[in-house]
């Protein structure tokens, strides 16, 4: 026979669980309500290696939400306002072999007492790249090899130099007035002993044509390198860089802020080049992405 103290203890236990159950139901309802107003628009999906992915957070009420976070697998992606939208950029490496990536969106409300979490699937499909047979160059001398490795280290350091905010507000533009591609992005260059992929795009340009910055940013590297010739790298913020190679002349300085369309230099035939042209690269977090795709993605 239960006594008075047993009844009190049961009342406390059941009352506590009941209270927690109500809170859980209220939290679920609130979570569903918030979940209905947030979604990710992922373009393109499915994607291919070398693609630039635009992730747009749609349906966010900024009166309710003050902080949003996006991650792809374990990599954190910066979200930022762009043309009345909240977007993030994801680059798919040329060497990507994983066929599926998971994106996680986490958003906190204005009181920071609730976090919404949802995951989305991004499919990555293989791509048949164009091929070209090439003749391999003779091995570099020890002195030239040392110079080559030093210059590659400078490029790597430059691509790690960025600011945690976009330095552009307008869409990206072509570096010339006319677009004429001579060697596509991702092309497999097959030699007798090794195969490598073209990490940029070659554009037809006679020596002396003005090369313009694809967007506003800060110059993080200039130089006259053994393989790349006269080079300019511009940081556009958020680890997004554009690279311009084989220039005949450089018209800006390292550390200089440049505007969209500003002349960086003149096209040329310097470095390991087979003729006058511009080799153009776009890197996101150090990974090469299709330079021409950014013209359509970030309109």
Describe this structure in words.
With 299 residues, this protein is of the alpha+beta class. The protein folds into two domains: 39-123, Sandwich (Immunoglobulin-like), CATH 2.60.40.1930; 131-297, Distorted Sandwich (Glucose Permease (Domain IIA)), CATH 2.70.70.10. Helices cover 18% and strands 38% of the residues. The protein has helices at residues 4-35, 142-159, 293-297, and strands at residues 39-43, 52-58, 65-72, 75-77, 80-82, 85-91, 100-109, 115-123, 131-133, 181-183, 188-190, 195-197, 201-204, 210-212, 217-225, 229-235, 240-247, 249-250, 257-258, 263-266, 277-284, 287-289. This is M23ase beta-sheet core domain-containing protein. InterPro entries: Cell_wall_metabolism_enzyme (IPR050570), Dup_hybrid_motif (IPR011055), M23ase_b-sheet_dom (IPR016047). Keywords: Membrane, Signal, Transmembrane, Transmembrane helix. The chain crosses the membrane at residues 12-33.
Query: At the fourth CATH level, what is the homologous superfamily of the largest domain?
Result: Glucose Permease (Domain IIA)
Using the alpha-carbon principal axes, give the shape.
Answer: globular
Ends distance: 77 Å
Please, how many helices? 3
Average pLDDT level: 84
The radius of gyration is: 26 Å
* Alpha-beta content class: alpha+beta
Describe the largest sheet.
Answer: 8 strands, antiparallel
Fraction of helical residues = 10-25%
CATH class call of the largest domain: Mainly Beta
> In the residues, how many domains can be counted?
2
- CATH-derived architecture of the largest domain: Distorted Sandwich
């Amino acid at each position: 026979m239960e006594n008075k103290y047993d009844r009190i203890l049961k009342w406390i236990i059941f009352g506590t669980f009941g209270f927690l159950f109500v809170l859980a139901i209220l939290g679920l309802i609130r979570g569903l309500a918030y979940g209905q107003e947030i979604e990710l628009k992922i373009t393109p999906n499915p994607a291919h290696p070398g693609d630039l992915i635009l992730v747009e957070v749609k349906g966010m009420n900024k009166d309710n939400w003050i902080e949003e976070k996006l991650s792809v697998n374990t990599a954190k992606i910066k979200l930022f306002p762009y043309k009345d939208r909240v977007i993030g950029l994801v680059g798919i490496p040329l060497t990507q072999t994983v066929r599926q990536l998971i994106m996680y969106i986490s958003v906190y409300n204005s009181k920071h007492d609730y976090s919404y979490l949802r995951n989305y699937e991004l499919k990555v499909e293989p791509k048949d790249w164009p091929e070209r047979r090439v003749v391999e160059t003779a091995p570099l001398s020890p002195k030239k090899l040392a110079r080559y490795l030093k210059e590659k280290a400078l490029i790597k350091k430059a691509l790690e130099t960025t600011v945690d905010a976009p330095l552009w507000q307008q869409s990206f533009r072509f570096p010339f007035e006319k677009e004429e591609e001579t060697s596509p992005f991702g092309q497999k260059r097959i030699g007798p002993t090794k195969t490598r992929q073209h990490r940029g795009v070659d554009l037809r340009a006679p020596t002396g044509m003005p090369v313009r910055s694809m967007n506003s940013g800060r110059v993080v590297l200039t130089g006259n390198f053994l393989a790349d010739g006269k080079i300019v790298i511009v940081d556009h913020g958020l680890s997004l860089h554009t690279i311009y190679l084989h220039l005949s002349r450089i018209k800006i300085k390292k550390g200089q802020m440049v505007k969209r369309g500003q002349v960086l230099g003149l096209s040329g035939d310097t470095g390991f080049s087979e003729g006058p042209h511009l080799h153009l690269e776009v890197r996101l977090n150090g990974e090469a992405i299709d330079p021409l795709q950014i013209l359509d993605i970030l309109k």
